[in-house]
Amino acid sequence: MRAFSELFTNIDQTASTNEKIDALVSYFATADEQDAIWCVALLSGRAPRRTVKTSELWEWSGELSGLPVWLQAESYHIVGDLAETISLLLPSHHTNHDYSLHQIIHDLIDLKGKDDAERKKYITHMWQQFNKQELFVFNKFITGGFRMGVSDKIIIKALAKHYNIDENIVAHRLSGGWEARGNTLNALLSNEDGTTDISRPYPFYLAYPLETAPEELGDVSEWQIERKYDGIRGQIIIRNNTLFVWSRGEDLMTEKFVEFHNLVNMLPDGIVIDGEILPMKDGIYLPFHVMQTRIGRKNVTKKTLQDAPLVMVCYDILEHDGVDVRHLSMQERRAILENVINDARSRNNNLPLLLSPVLECNTWQEVTEERTRSRDNHCEGLMLKKKDSEYKTGRRRGDWWKWKVDPLSIDGVMLYAQRGHGRRADLYTDFTFAVWDGDELVPFCKAYSGLTDKEMLQVDAWIKKNTLDKFGPVRSVTPTLVFEIGFEGINPSPRHKSGVALRFPRILRWRQDKTAKEANTKADLMELLNIYGIGKSE
Amino acid sequence: MVTFDNCGIYCAQAGIYIDPWKPVDKAIITHAHSDHAHAGMGTYIAHEHAIPVMRFRLGADIRAQSLAYDEMITINGVKISLHPAGHIWGSSQVRLEYKGEIWVVSGDYKLRHDGISTPFEPVKCHSFITESTFGLPIYNFPPIEEVHGDINDWWTKNKEEGKNSIIAAYSLGKAQRVLTHLDTSIGNIYTHGAVDNINKIYIDTIGTLPHTQRIDSSVNRKEIKGAMIIAPPSALDTPWMRTLQPYKLGICSGWMQLRGTRRRRGADRGFVLSDHADWDQLNTAVKETGAERIYVTHGYKSIYAKWLSTNYGLDATEVETLYTGESEDNNTDTQTKLAQDNESIQ
Question: What is the rounded average pLDDT for all residues in chain B?
Fold first, then answer.
């Protein structure tokens, strides 16, 4: 635990990728095998499920610190992180005994079956074994969300360096679901653990937003142009006649996608397809919120299947006949993909797979025009893929670009402000915005990103001087400041006062040139809803 | 006996303000930081070690009366004396006594010994005015020696990597305090001009500091290698600082206790080192005065006042002052960002 806690500190104290990699490499060099694999599991978002409730943590830490509930709550509002708050409130200890990382994690997992008294005994005992830093790390194990500024890329690089294995292989072996308990990195990386092998997805190749004029990409004929769909990126895997569906977040979602269950009988074995999962009815894509409600459901009913049947729009093939084909060119992979899909379709009319159409453009001008038609197709923009590109891992520049349409936008008045979290804790950075409905301001969205650091401080200071009322961490402010809010989509929502829900709202800019009176109205929102908000089928 | 008005903390019987923020006839100044020592007062009364800095910052021609700690003067029947506050060198608590009633205005203070300020002394009183900059139980500062050790280790490591170490520390108080505890065997120490100015005053009036060199136009930047550089936070992100590359930046402040603040400030290292009292120190100080009425100023005012009344049964009230530069309660946070180079607010 001490070594892991130090690793955490070292990583937390640097912004340099190389220093983070070095810190990891030196941790792997000395760490116990089981600790090392848990380290990778934790850093890559594979922390075990929570076995202790937040309310229990507050109660038990209150007993140890002797602080009243209201003071703990005030502290939390300032710190903005549960694990950190509790570690700061508890008295710290210095013991010489070092607990092993994997033992702690296993103990935490095993709390699941224990009764309240045993769980409390374990947690409060452990709280008295650690110094402040270790306490924080331990609390992070409990509360989950273990983010410490280490991307998958950094872990992959560090492991590749330590084990002297190619990065792509490491990336592949690390993806998907694997068990850390009883496993070792050696076994996982040399593919000897065998347990989850057939379900293992490939790391997704992700595109950066296009930063230049498309003309600068060279000859348009070297590029494959496709639409960028607004669904869930996923991989369909069929190996050993078993189907696996992975989302980009590397969640195994096979069970949720009933529509795909028959694919084992429709597609050849040993295949991995990359595409976008979308709801589609009568040949028309449905907007994203239909998908959202579908994904949120625990049980997929007959009605949801009828209302929002899913398809995958396929755009790449990563494995064919059991062979990794990622090194082939986009063009070659596309040919294989077309063969596979067309062949399957010829035998199955109701194949839930479609090919992502390649847009025929002869000039960049035509590409630009296609982009403007994105919203008509319920798409977010275009994907530009170099025809000779191989399928890489992670987010890379150069061969693939996403070229999204400009966001929709509306000017809203700030009504409420709330403290942020993490880096922005103790600053008012989360805002609720409203539009005019006659003389009344109706809240229509919350947004928290988009301001520069300097603007954030200015707005924060303004909020503190213009507070009307306070409710816990939230303040209402005099409706004065106007912000331009950008968003990707707009949908009807009975749950919101304004009647709409925005997709990916964020602050485009602070309209210091506008007074509150000049902000947009609810009628303006409704107009956007009418133009963009309703699925083509309706 | 003591009231709060729009100029500052006022003792009507003596006709004197303490740390006023608007020009008044007579002002007692607890310490020379700019949010407590404003320009334009008719006469200043302060500790003898505070006055040279005030003359440097407010003008050589200010009318000032200096007092030693425990030295008593009487104005219109009010006995007035200064007592060590331990905040920075020359910082004082102000004790006012009239017809047996005693008030103490503590200004900014800390209980821990920093090695250069005269250590804080508790003063018995009936009414105590306290700051609350770190008036939340999340602020429990690590032992000072541990932080000094961390700073020296960090310097050593940076030097081995061929980098300079820049410490951002307020030029009055924090800078001298950090300097005193540096291990001079590690390497050379340089200072920003603003720090050097105050160092000179310290050396003239109080005592020695480790040898440092001011970075001015005569210094060849290429010769600054693996060195420690003490600079005020206002020097961050300036062309001056860029000439010192490659460097690592460390910030010394109580706010560094929070991970979010540490990361937001963009420092390579945050050292939890403060000239203010943390939670335990505040509680100790309040209890040791024996006071029953507590007035809580700048910091987490409302929270800390509520704690004092509910936990200790004291008559605690929050008071608006301009020491925070903002009128809202329970927010010391703007200081972290806006008041660039002074943890104790501009």
Answer: 89
Place of tokens 């936070």: B233
Tens-digit pLDDT profile for residues A126-169? 999 998 899 999 999 998 777 777 888 899 999 999 999 888 88
Q: Which residue ranges does chain A devote to CATH 3.30.470.30?
A: 205-404
Whole-angstrom distance, CA of residue A424 vs CA of residue B190: 33
pTM over 0.80: no
pLDDT at A173: 85
Cα–Cα distance measured from residue B46 to residue B28, given in angstroms and rounded to the nearest whole number: 6
Q: How far is A460 from chain B (nearest CA, A)?
A: 8
Q: What is the pLDDT of residue A193?
A: 54
If we measure between CA atoms, which residue out of B147, B175, B148 comes closest to residue B88? B175
- Rounded to the nearest angstrom, the gap between the alpha carbon of residue B228 and the centroid of all alpha carbons in its chain is 22
Q: What is the pLDDT at residue A108? A: 95
Residue B144, chain A, CB below 8 Å: the answer is no
- At residue B327 the predicted structure's pLDDT band, cuts being 50, 70 and 90, is very low
Q: Which helix (H) or strand (E) holds B96?
A: strand B92-98
Cα distances (Å, whole numbers) of residue A503 to A246, A418, A492 = 23, 20, 11
CATH class name, domain A205-404: alpha beta
Residue B163 has pLDDT above 50, yes or no: yes
Catalytically annotated residue among A20, A140, A157, A228: A228
Which chain B positions have a beta carbon within 8 Å of A11's beta carbon?
none
- Give B4-16 pLDDT, tens digit per residue: 998 999 999 999 9
The model's pLDDT over B93-151, given as tens digits with 9 standing for 90+, comes to 999 999 999 999 999 999 999 999 999 999 999 999 999 999 999 999 999 999 999 99
Enumerate domains of chain B plus CATH numbers.
Answer: 2-139+275-341 (3.60.15.10), 144-271 (3.40.50.10890)
B4-7: long-range contacts (C-beta < 8 A, 24 or more apart)? B4/B295, B4/B319, B4/B320, B4/B321
Work out the number of other CB atoms within 10 angstroms of the CB of residue A436. Answer: 20
- Minimum distance, in Å, between the CA of residue B63 and any CA atom of chain A: 36
Q: Is the domain covering A2-143 a CATH 1.10.3260.10 domain?
A: yes
CB-nearest to A85 from B138, B140, B337 is B138
Torsion angles phi and psi, residue A402, rounded to 5: -105, 140
CATH number corresponding to A408-532: 2.40.50.140
Q: Chain A to chain B, count of Cβ pairs less than 8 Å apart?
A: 86
Structure tokens, B237: 């992100």
Start-end ranges of CATH 2.40.50.140 in chain A?
A: 408-532
Q: Which residue of B has its CA nearest to A90?
A: B138
User: Does A85 touch chain B if contact means CB atoms closer than 8 Å?
Assistant: yes
Ranges under pLDDT 70 in chain A: 191-197, 250, 298, 421-426, 472, 533-538
Structure tokens at B16: 């004197």
Residues of A in contact with B142 (CB under 8 A): 132
CB contact under 8 A, A79 and B263: no
Q: What is the pLDDT of residue A81?
A: 86
Distances (CA, A) of A281 to A304, A352, B138: 12, 11, 55
Contact between B306 and A464 using a beta-carbon 8 Å cutoff: no
Other beta carbons within 10 Å of A342: 11
Least confident window among A226-230, B173-177, B236-240: B236-240
Tell whether B280 lies on the interface with A, counting CB pairs under 8 A. no
- Told to judge if A536 belongs to the known catalytic residues of this protein, a careful annotator would answer no
pLDDT for the residue A489: 83
Q: Which of residues 122-181 of A touch B (CB under 8 A)?
A: 132, 136
| pLDDT of amino acid A30 | 94
Q: Does the distance separating the beta carbons of A88 and B137 come in below 8 Å? A: yes
